[in-house]
Amino acid sequence: MPEGDTVWRAAQRLDRALSGQVLTRTDVRVPAYATWDLAGATVAETVSRGKHLLTRIDADQAWTLHTHLKMEGGWRILEPGQRWPRPAHTARVVLETAEAVAVGFSLGIVEFVARDAESDVVGHLGPDLLGPDWDAAEAVRRLRGHPSRPVKEALLDQTLLAGVGNMYACELCFISGVDPQTPVEQVPDLPRMVARAHQLLDQNRHRAVQSTTGDLARGRNLWVYARGGQPCRRCGTRIVQTTHGPEGQERVTYHCPRCQPAR
Ligand SMILES: [Zn+2]
Predict the structure, then answer these.
(1) What is the pLDDT of residue 247?
(2) What spatial distance separates the first Cα and last Cα of the chain, rounded to whole Å?
(3) Apex 170 CA angle, 169 and 173, nearest 5
(4) Three-class DSSP category at 39
(5) For residue 251, what pLDDT is reported?
(6) Looking at the whole model, is its pTM more than 0.90?
(7) Which helix (H) or strand (E) element contains residue 135?
(8) What is the side-by-side order of every strand in the sheet holding 52-58?
């Protein structure tokens, strides 16, 4: 599952490659849009909202292509004629201009909405950690509306704040010295935790390697995520790997029982 900064970078790449360009060929491999042909339309821009991508296309009317990477998805920008990096049958959208081919592979959501109805697909999101209108106080207020919810699960709820994925949720709990199962109301300094979330995504959106430790070397860039059984970088205790979350949406959680004592 990608994090908000990964999606922000995808939006930047799409925006650079397509904005202001006329589409020469489109192929939307979703039954509802199988007959859609947006050749001749102009791409206005691509922006991210939380983990959602909005590609605004001016055709017969102002459309927005709404896509979401979900678990395995990714957008690739290729040169015309360049070999695709993933199997063709996993492509869901192809947007071609004279100079670039944007291919969306294994996307979890592909739909067109009228531009003035974008709020139907992203209006449910909480404050966007990387949005121009990021509102830390509102994010804290929304989190506090769920006092008994485990804090890690609450951080992942995109309606409370938008952009945190499983990696950042685990890392934020470690950095804050909080057991992931701690109820929101028992987190000692929730505003500080939210401020750190913003700081981490904001720093990492410009980096090829996401780091929470400050070390950009792969293998040293994270505190606990995906480090089950390995020694804590701070105290040497083995990192514990557990599975939490509602049925069907379980997530693997990593934490150091010594640095993040249960409350
Ligand atoms: Zn530790």
Answers:
(1) 80
(2) 29
(3) 85
(4) coil
(5) 87
(6) yes
(7) none
(8) 42-49, 52-58, 62-68, 109-114
Please report, to the nearest 10 degrees, the dihedral formed by the alpha carbons of residues 98, 52, 165, 134 taken in order: 110
Nearest to 230 by CA among 254, 213, 252, 258: 254
Distance separating alpha carbons of residues 147 and 186, to the nearest angstrom: 8
Q: What residues pack around ion ligand 1 (CB closer than 5 A)?
A: 232, 234-235, 237, 256, 258-259
CA-to-CA separations, 56 to 39, 101, 115, in angstroms, rounded: 14, 16, 7
What's the pLDDT at 140?
A: 98
Q: What is the pLDDT of residue 261?
A: 95
C-alpha distance from residue 12 to each of 8, 16, 18, 260 (Å) = 6, 6, 10, 36
- What does the pLDDT read at residue 1? 74
- Is residue 46 a contact partner of residue 54, using CB atoms and an 8 Å limit? yes
What is the model's pLDDT at position 263? 79
Report CA(174)–ligand 1 centroid distance (Å): 8
Residue whose entry in the numeric block shows the structure tokens 């995109």: 158
The residues annotated with a catalytic role in the active site are: 2-3, 51, 251
Residue matched to tokens 């950009």: 216
CA of 73 from ligand 1 middle (Å) equals 33
Q: What is the pLDDT of residue 71?
A: 87
User: Which DSSP string do the residues of 50-102 spell out, in sequence order?
Assistant: TTEEEEEEESSSEEEEEEE-TTT-EEEEE-TTPPPSS-GGGEEEEEE-SS-EE
Contacts by 37-44, CB closer than 8 A, 24 or more apart: 38/63, 38/95, 43/18, 43/19, 43/95, 43/97, 44/19, 44/20
Ranges of the chain with pLDDT below 70: 245
